[in-house]
Amino acid sequence: MLGGYTAKVLRVNLSTWSITVEQLEEKILRKYIGGVGLAAKFFLEEVPANTDPLSPDNMLIFATGPLVGTAVPTSGRHAVVAKSPLTGIWGESDAGGYWGKELKWAGYDMLLISGRALYPVYLLITNEGVRIEDASHLWGKDTFETSEFLTKEAVPGGVAAVIGPAGEKQVKLAAIMHDGKHGRAAGRAGLGAVMGSKNLKAIVVKGDQPNLIAGRRELSESIRSKMKQIREGTTALQKFGTSGSVPGIEKVGDLPIRNWRDGAWTEGALNISGQKLAETFLSGNYRCHSCPIGCGREVKIGEGRFGAVDGAGPEYETVASLGSLCLVDNLEAIVYANELCNRLGIDTISAGSAIAFAMEAYERGLIGKEEAGGLNLEWGRAETMVELIRQIGNAEGLGAVLGNGVRAAAEKMGGTALEFSIHVKGLEFPAHDPRAYNSLALTYATSSRGACHLQGFSHSFEKAVTMPQLGYTEIQDRFAIEGKGAMTAKLQDLCCLFDSLKACKFLLFGGVKVEHLLEWLNYVVGWDMDLSEFMLAGERISNLKRIYNNACGISRKDDTLPPRILTHKRRTGGAAENLPHLGMMLSEYYQFRGWDDEGFPTIEKIRQLGIEELFNKANAQ
């Protein structure tokens, strides 16, 4: 018995109105695992690198993994993949909640969507079948309204993935939102715009057929043996959510402040922290499927200065991006702005980055009063931050420019704007500073979707996490350079496995190691995979994404960081004088990866990974 998988792929072509189901062979599942691994395999086969991201030819993929729908801790996740309209390269995002579990229990490991509907539609997926329904009455509604209608009227008890006005208007910072008011976002890379370009308002799913588990008793015993350690290691996340880390992150110099210019903001950090949220607007918490942590925050504001709020509280990345990055220390404004982003369907990370960029451009005289539409863009103005989010989500005013991302906005302004547009390959930085953890510089520079800490999670190994099976028996020196190339490559491969199994990386804080992930995979599916085969699968997936990006024109010239990060010392804070030596780390990284000096996987590496056919398809333009 093959457990974990349904071994079925659901295909929907919105242009032809066709719905088909394909079977997945076990050898393919074993080679690519699931999630982003399977998505990468299909993507390289079917989406040429010269595809226009907002054309019907782009494919939007939703993918679960073998652990999704099981009792494995934190396995309530799914991947979303498409060519990114924001970056023009591999686009990948990830969401928690319950949507992925429902898709799996409805009978599918993956959903592949191509084409473009003639008018707004939504997909309805249950165990009884799949339908394409008219969504004209939902077009223009926000994500909360849309989700509520679909999960109460169309499919009672279902879970919806939806876009808001930002996705409809193909704003390049648009997200795909899940789980209604809990606002679980596939936020990065503008994939909500891809969904909008297909006239696809929502996908609502409901499943009632739980996964088969090959070794149910062994799996239960293994999970039980790890649960105490997981809970103890994630206590702070349970109590204060991800934003509880703000004061500590500020102390070590990792918090982004004033568009990445400053190194310290102690009082401001306390004002926007999870601890402060718990004292003020917190009303409860929530968790993803099979999650013992429950880091999600619920907040409520009746009649506030900015408006009422009743939904998800801001995560760390949000309070940093909308808060410290813009010097906004008004937590009520951030809580309201977070809900506004969720309703409009906007990535809070990129939105905050765009607003901080605009504030600096205003300070430097590159945006005048006319371009600002009468807004006061001085640092720290909460009202301006909230208004710009509204404009971005509705593609209005200055927001219409900022909604294309900081790279495009800087290119339009020209001059010195390019000096302070903080991105990698067009994707705005997440809220961790590479000058605080040298490995982050390399992780950002080489991550497949652009600047991303979650595709390597390397900084956690420079502050708290060890992994003896990968050769890291103690916490690594965060300011060291030697060895970071090999470490980053190994951890990117590990993260590809997390993202293919579909498990949350917060498990690392709970003492879960690579051998535990492999153990759970084998118990769920019924395999006897060893560690070398497992890690080889992670390396294979990392290389597939690189091959696609190479076909899009990405090479060493693009594996870099903005001048501010490489040359500007902040002089204050916990990493006041450090600058990461990216060139040395990058050369070591390429050598360890088996790539050439320009950042292309060698033919020998491609053959070793058994991906020659996919390599040829990616390069057959």
Outline the structure in words.
By secondary structure, the chain is α+β, with helices and mostly antiparallel strands. Strands 2-1-6-3-4-5 form a 6-stranded mixed beta sheet. A 6-stranded mixed beta sheet has the order 8-7-12-9-10-11, with helices on both faces. Strands 13-14-15 form a 3-stranded antiparallel beta sheet. The longest helix has 21 residues, at 531-551. The protein is globular. The two termini are 40 Å apart. 62% of the residues are buried. The mean pLDDT is 97.
Percent in strands:
5-15%
Q: Report strand order across the widest sheet.
A: 2-1-6-3-4-5
Question: Judging from the principal axes of the Cα atoms, what is the shape?
Answer: globular
How many β-strand stretches? 17
Whole-number mean pLDDT: 97
User: Whole-number radius of gyration?
Assistant: 22 Å
Cα separation of the termini: 40 Å
Structural class by secondary-structure content: alpha+beta
Quick one: biggest sheet?
A: 6 strands, mixed
Helix-residue proportion? 25-40%
Q: Any low-confidence stretches, pLDDT <50, length ≥5?
A: none
The number of helices is 25
